[in-house]
Target: Sodium/bile acid cotransporter 7
Amino acid sequence: MSRRGPRRVLASFWRSHGFMIGLMVVTALTLADSAEMSVRWGRWLKTHHGPDGIIAAIFFFSGMTLEKESLSQGLVDLKAIGGALFLIFVLAPLWALTLAYWPMSPGLVVGLFLVAAMPTTLSSGVVMTGAAGGNTATALLITIVSNAMAILVTPLLLKFLLGQSVKSTTAVLNTPSLMATLALLVLTPLAVGMRLRNPCLALMRRVRCPQPGTLNTFLVIVVVWLGVCGSRHTILQGLNLMPLLLALAVVFHGGLLVGGFFITRLLDLSVGRREAVIFMGGQKTLPLSVLIQTAVFPQYGEALIFCVAHHLVHLIMDGGVLSLLKNARLSASHGMARSAEGTRRLEEGDAGMRTKRHEKGSP
Model:
């Protein structure tokens, strides 16, 4: 027992923080590789369609984690789904466009716009929604719908945002080509993963293969490593921007959280329904932003660092929101329990008074 205790603690810690630790360690080691021993391999993989294959695998495994039976249950709350999609594809881009007037380099603007145009996350938002007591079926449906819509909406949003920006960028966005790429690398493997979910999971259990969520964590870290390898020199030159970059990530995601709470209040979404809007509407997927940055904006290394930093920042901030929502839910349940107990005691007191009166009136 003395050995299993620490192992369980370590396993729990790794499940909670392993992804963030992995991202930070891989990024730091790649930037510190002055001899570029690992960087050369990363660049070779990048030029030989490594990111494309990894992204397709990520969405395939993500499809395996989505239960089709739960999706039909999520259709019940169309108001929450609409609120989340408004937050993802309308409020986030407009908020990013507003923040673009803040003095910053074109690379940071590109990174901000990349994050703003992304659909929601594939797993963390659903997990946080469930942990906060929200409807995971609604969260799953928001994941599917937003990532499917991203095939058309994300390229159009990027084109709009880059065209409206006050900063000058040299990137040329081929919208039809990007749409085709997203359809091939996102929608197709996601659909195939959902279709083959049961037989693939059974096979993975037989051969004792890591679960899809664990594999995805590793693959996301790998795709970030490929991006850092390709933009290493640019990133090193822009490390002095890190304080501004982190501040921008906090302000951007903080605005989305405020918008999420406001939308749930406006739509009169009660506890249990609002959580999916707050978490799914505010979170942004990382693999897709890294894919587009490496393929379309490789000259802007700051954009890649912002995408990664924002992902870490929004996980930390949403962890705090999760604690607040859980505490509020616990306080509400305790308050209801105390109210019910008080009502029960009043009823018992009234019953006792009536019994005494009846006994006094009896001969």
About this structure: Residues 346 and 352 are 10 Å apart (CA to CA). The chain has a mean pLDDT of 83.
